[in-house]
Amino acid sequence: MAAKKKFKKQIRKERPLSTKCLFCEAKKDPDYKNYADLSKYLSDRGRIFSRERSGVCSKHQRKLASEVKRARFLALLPY
User: Fold this and answer.
1) Distance CA 56, CA 62 (A)
2) Is pLDDT of 16 > 70?
3) How far, CA to CA in Å, does 46 sit from each of 10, 19, 28, 57?
4) Which of 3, 45, 58, 76 could form a disulfide with 71 if both were Cys (CB 3.0 to 4.6 A apart)?
5) How many angstroms separate the CA atoms of 8 and 58, rounded?
6) Torsion-angle region of residue 9: left (phi > 0), alpha (psi -120 to 50) or beta?
7) What molecular functions are annotated in GO for this chain (predicted)?
């Protein structure tokens, strides 16, 4: 009987949207009222991208997450 082949799961690394924090470069913070910019950091399913994927620094990633949650609560962004 022939041995079964084992398939390795290929993991694709997604590149970040940018290598530098866009909020640091513009010297501004994410704002829930500017939901068009916040939607860049959401997947098509509505999930917030990680720091590695979004390319945002840790300080602005925390602020971004809270502002996205605030915009969702006010029905500006989908859950």
Assistant:
1) 10
2) no
3) 25, 22, 23, 21
4) 76
5) 33
6) beta
7) small ribosomal subunit rRNA binding; structural constituent of ribosome
Q: Which of 1-15, 40-54, 59-73 has the weakest average pLDDT?
A: 1-15
- For the record, the structure tokens of 50 come out as 């990680």
Question: Which residues are within 8 A (CB) of 37 and not within 5 positions of it... i.e. 6 or more apart?
Answer: 30
Question: What's the full length of the chain, in residues?
Answer: 79
| pLDDT tier at 31, thresholds 50, 70, 90 | very high
**Res. 14: pLDDT tops 90:** no
CATH number of 31-73: 4.10.640.10
Cα 21 from Cα 59, distance rounded (Å): 10
Which two tokens mark 3?
């041995």
